[in-house]
Amino acid sequence: MFKPLGMIASCLALSCAATFASALETTGPDRQEVLPLALRGVHFVPNQGQWSDAEVYFGLRSCGLDVAFRESALTMHLVRQAGPASRGGEEALAPNLDALLPDDRDSLGDRAEYEHLTLTVSFPGSYRVVPEGGKPRKAHFNYFVGGEGRAMASDVPSFGAVVYHNLYDGIDLHVMGSDDGVLKYEFHAQPGADYGRIRIAYDGIESLCIDDAGDLHIATAFGTLADRAPVVWQEIDGARSEVAARFDVCDPWTYRILIQGEVDAIHAIVIDPDVEWMYYLGGTRDEWGFGVGIDSDGNVLVGGQTWSFDFEGAGNFHHGGTVDVYVAKADRDGALLWMTYLGGSGDDRGGMLAIDSANNTVMVGSTKSDDFEGRNNSYRGTMFVGDAYALKVDTTGQLAWMTYLGGSGNELAYEVVVDRTDSILTAGYTFSEDFEGATNANHGQVDGFMVRIQPDGSLTSMTYYGGRLDDYALAIALDEADRVWIAGETASNDWQGSVNSYHGARDGFLLRTGQMGSVDWMVYLGGSDWDTGRGLAVHASDYAVVTGQTRSTDLDARTNEYHGAWDGYAAKVSDAGAIEWSTYTGGSGDDFPEDVVLRSDGTAFLDGGTTSMVIEGQINSNHGMRDAYIIQLSPRGEVDWMTFVGGSDDDIPKAIALDSVGDIYLSGLTDSTDFEFATNEPHRERDAFILKLRLVLPLQLVVESTCPSGGPIQVSWSNATPGGQVALLFARIAGSFAIPNGRPCAGTVLGLGPNQLQIAFQGSAGPEGSRTLNSNAGAGACGGHLQLLDLATCRTSIVARVE
After folding, report:
1. Across the strands, what pairs with 391?
2. According to the 3-state scheme, what is the secondary structure of 260-314?
3. What is the pLDDT of residue 392?
4. Cβ neighbours for 279, distance < 8 A, ≥ 6 positions apart
5. 489 - beta bridge partners?
6. Which terminus in the chain has less CB density within 10 A, N or C?
7. CA angle, 178 then 184 then 190, to 5°
8. What is the pTM of this model?
9. What share of the chain is helix, strand, coil (3-state, %, to 5)?
10. Which residues contact 239 (CB under 8 A, 6 or more apart)?
11. Which runs of E-coded beta strand occur in 648-710?
C-alpha cells in the first residue's frame, strides 16, 4: 500500500578544504581544553553553560564549520584570516575557538586580522521549536574555560543528530553528520502533513541559484556553499521508493522543495488558508482601522480614524481637530478606489460600519465636533464630553447625512447593522440619563443602548439596557426575523429578563430583543473571574456565537481547558438563551478577541490580537510582538485551525467580514512595516490595514465499490467549484502525468500513470461543489485509480484506489 511522504533529504557540502573557520571563541595560551582524540564523525554538544549565549541549545565543532542551534534556526559563524597574515593569496583559518558567537566576537582579538561572516538559516512559517539531541554518541566533552557569562562544564554528552520536532505540523527536521564530516538535513513528514509549507531562508548571503544538476548554490562573501539536489523517498512494504523532487528558489534568500512525483495518495491535505493580499492605509501620521464590510459588487469598505492630513486617496480635506474619521473603498484585488475624511473641528473617532442594500456605507462612533459636516440635528455634548453619531456615505464617497446621538453625558456608538428595510440599528454605551429618543429609564451610571434610525437619518427610538452598575453594549446583530441580538460586558447582577445567574467579577452578556427593543431574554456569559463579550454573529434565527476575553477557568459548558493569562473564548447560545458550548481560544500569553462571523454551514471565524507564541490549531508561526490571528471553529466549537497574520511589530485587528464566495477580510491597525503579503509600502509606523484571506479547501474524493468482483460503485466528491465542470479520471496505475498542450488544464500534473488513462465522467460538480455518482463497474476496474480534476480551477483531488 502506498504510504505518506517519509523523508526529504539533502546535505550541505562542507569539507576541511572550505574557507571556513570555527565559530567558537579563540583559545589563547592561558586556556586549555581537554578533548578526546581521534574522534570520527560529527558531534553535537548541548549547551550546559559553557557558552554564554543562553539562546544556543546545541553547538557543533567540525572541520571547517561551527554551528549554533537555536530556537527554530541555525547560526553559522565563519572566520578567515585576512590582511598581512595571509600568505601567497591563501586564506588561513582562524585558531580554535571555544565560545559561541556572535555575542563574544570581541574575544577574537584584533579584528584587522580576521574577517567574519554570520549566516542564519530559518524556516518561514514554522513553529517556535527548541531543538533536542538525537542518536546519542559515546564521546563526552569537558570545558575548562571560564569567563564572564560562561561556566566550566564536564562530562557533557554528545549526539549524532539535532532534531526539531514538529517544526511544521507533522514535520520534523533532523540535522545530522556523516563519518566524513559532511552535514546533512532531512525533513520527516507524517501522514497527512502538508510538506508544501516547508521553506528554508538564509540571512547574510548574497544570492541563491540552482545549477543544471539541481544543486543549490548559496553565494556568500566568503565563497559559495553547495546544497545537493534533494532526495525524497517513502518506505513501501519495507522497501525504499524514491519520489521526484527539486529545489525551487522563491526569492534571493529563500528556497523550497517541490515534490513532483506521487505522494500520500490516501490522506487529504488539511485546509490551508492563503493570504491573497494586504494593503496599508494611511498617511504620514497614525491611522486606525475599525470596521470592514463587503458590498454586493465585492468591493471592500473600511472605516476608522486618522491623524493624517495627507491620507492616500483622499477626495477631500481633513476637517480640523486632532483626529478625523474616514471611509475608504478598495476593490476585491486590494486597489484603493477612494477615501473620504469625515468630521468637524473637534476630535472625531470610530469607524464600525455596515453596508445597506444600495451599497451605501453606514458608520458610527463618537465626536466632540459641534459642527460635524452633514449634520441633520444639534450636538448635545460639551467640550469635555462627546456625542455618539451615525452617518451615511454613498457609493462614490459622498456624505449623505450625519446624525448626533446622545444626551448631556458621554456616548460611544460601538457597532452598527442594517435591516432588510435599510433601517439602521447601532449599539453602544452612554453616561447620559437624558439620551434623546429614549423609550425607557437609565439603570445605572453607564448603560448599554440601542438606537434605531431611519434610512434618511432621522432618529426613531433609543432603548437603555443594563442594571444598577456599569453595562457596555459592544456588539449587535440581526437574525432572519430582524430581531436584535446584543452582546457586551456588565458589572450588574440584577438584569431584568436574565435566564441564569451572574458569575462574579465582571461578566459578558448576550440578550435578544423583539423588533421594538423589549428584552426577550438575557444570559450572563463567563465564570468566576473577569469576562467580556466583544464580537457577535447570528446564524439564521437558530443561535448566536459570542466571542470575548476571559480570565475565568470555569466557563459554562466549556469544551476544552483554559490556556493561561487572558484567554479568548467563543460561546454558542441557543434561541432560548441556553449556553450550548464554550471554547477557550488562545495560548500562554494574552489573547484579545475582537469579532466573529458565521458561514452558512455554522463554521465560525474569529479574529483578534495575541502575544501568545503558540495557539491551539495553529498552522504557521507568530511574526512579532503582538500578531493578528484568525481562528476557524467547527459548528461544535472545535478549533479547526488558527493562523497568525502580521509583521515584526504590533498588529491589532478590529473587524472581520466574509464575502459571498467565503473569502475573509480583516481590518485593523499595524505598527509593522514588514506586514506579510503587503502589496504597497507603509506610510509610517502605524497604519490602518485591509487583509484578504482565501480559504482553499482541498478537493475530497471518496470511492466505495464491491471489489474484487464487479458491481455497484459509488463516487463522491466535495469542495469543487459550485456549479462548475469536473472530470473524473481513471488509470490502471498511480504515477505522474502532465496534461498535454491543447487539452483543458494543460500542464497540470496528475497523480495517475498514463497506462489506460481515460475520462470516466465529465459533468457538473453540483450546486454546492459536491456530488455523488452511483454506477456499476466491471471487475477490471478493481485495483485501478481515480482522481477528480476541477476544470474551472485545474485543482486535483487526492488519488483514490478502487478496492
Report:
1. 363, 402
2. CCCCCCCCCCCCEEEEEEEEEECCCCCEEEEEEEECCCCCEEEEEEECCCCCCCE
3. 97
4. 330, 334, 336, 678, 679, 680, 689, 690, 691
5. 472, 508
6. N
7. 115
8. 0.62
9. 0, 50, 50
10. none
11. 651-658, 664-670, 687-696, 700-705
Q: What is the DSSP string of 475-498?
A: EEEE-TT--EEEEEEE--S--TTB
Q: How far apart are CA 579 and CA 213, in angstroms?
A: 62
155 grid coordinates: 562530562
For residues 504 and 700, give the distance between their C-alpha atoms in angstroms, rounded to a whole number.
47
Query: From CA 148, how far away is CA 106, in angstroms rounded?
Result: 13
pLDDT value at residue 709: 78
When the pLDDT of each residue in the chain is averaged and rounded to a whole number, the result is 82
pLDDT exceeds cutoff 60 at 102: no
pLDDT tens, 273-330?
667 788 899 999 999 999 999 999 999 999 999 999 999 989 889 998 899 999 999 9
The distance from CA 123 to its chain's CA centroid, rounded to whole angstroms, is 16
Q: Specify the pLDDT at position 600.
A: 86
Q: In what order do the strands lie in the sheet with 336-342?
A: 287-294, 300-306, 324-330, 336-342
For Cα atoms 118, 121, 126, give the angle at the middle one, nearest 5 degrees.
Answer: 150
Decide if 336 contacts 283 (C-beta within 8 A). Answer: no
Sequence-separated (6 or more) residues with CB below 8 Å from residue 233:
6, 7, 9, 240, 241, 242, 243
Residues in CB range of 107: below 8 A, 6 or more apart: 25, 26, 99
C-alpha cell of residue 757: 488513462
